[in-house]
Design goal:
Number of helices: 2
Strand order of the largest sheet: 1-2-3-4-5-6-7-10
Structural class: mainly beta
Shape: elongated
Number of strands: 10
Largest sheet: 8 strands, antiparallel, barrel
Strand content: over 45%
Helix content: under 10%
Order of helices and strands: HEEEEEHEEEEE
């Protein structure tokens, strides 16, 4: 889409400008980062899911040159499924699914998924003795999402573990990620936080052979999944060897 192309151009431009900006701070460190992100599906994905949450774990290795790289993985979860017609082929006229005992079944639909990205980037510091600054990065990895069908252990023959696969719309594929973070780190104070924004652009396919509601084979065309997120986290240094090396969550 035009929006995703413009985002890519902006990040590329920023990275190029920063690379030649002449910053030379000595700010190497390794660490872990845990963050929470509130995410907004864009485009085609917004027709399937509403806003969701993401909890991520990040391993980072930052060099003296201010370039850094790492691996980030995370779990996606949410409760806003946009499609209300998923069970139309097994529902009554009033929209209820009947369980094996002849009573109305209580079914909960949730969004579930995960993502992982290897990334690299560049940090701009405001003080040559402090890691505080703006961190730009781009990454390549994997994105997966599906509809989780929670039947609360009810006996529903038409929604056993095998039949659920015909409704869960399992989708995954190659993903790119672009992130801008602001890290605030005070060595002598307890306030160590970070916040930022991120954008993921993934090229995915449906992985189930059949989609039961339409009684047809699933669409095997490549889809473009876009997600914009706003995240925040806490930095907790551990096992520091000196003033410049720390681990952070």
């Amino acid at each position: 889409s035009i929006w995703s192309k413009n985002m890519f151009r902006i990040f590329t431009f920023l990275l190029l400008i920063i690379s030649f900006s002449g910053f030379s701070q000595n700010q190497s460190f390794k660490g872990f980062l845990i963050d929470y992100s509130y995410q907004f599906p864009i485009g085609q994905l917004s027709e399937k899911f509403g806003n969701n949450s993401f909890v991520g774990l990040n391993l980072i290795n930052k060099k003296e040159s201010n370039f850094f790289y790492g691996l980030k993985v995370g779990y996606i979860f949410g409760g806003n499924i946009q499609d209300s017609t998923i069970f139309d082929n097994i529902s009554t006229e009033n929209g209820f699914v009947i369980d094996g005992n002849g009573t109305y079944a209580n079914i909960i639909l949730l969004q579930e998924g995960f993502s992982s990205h290897f990334y690299g980037g560049y940090a701009v510091h405001f003080n040559d003795k402090n890691p505080t600054g703006i961190y730009f990065s781009t990454g390549l990895g994997f994105l997966q999402h599906r509809i989780r069908i929670d039947t609360k252990n009810q006996y529903i023959p038409q929604l056993n573990n095998d039949y659920k696969k015909g409704y869960d719309q399992l989708t995954n594929g190659l993903s790119t990620n672009f992130t801008i973070d602001y890290i605030y780190y005070q060595k002598r104070k307890q306030l160590k936080i970070f916040t930022g924004i991120d954008y993921s652009l993934a090229f995915t396919k449906e992985r189930r052979a059949y989609y039961f509601p339409d009684v047809i084979s699933t669409n095997q065309n490549i889809k473009t999944d876009q997600i914009f997120g706003v995240h925040i986290g806490i930095i907790i240094p551990i096992n520091r060897k000196n003033e410049e090396e720390f681990h952070y969550f």
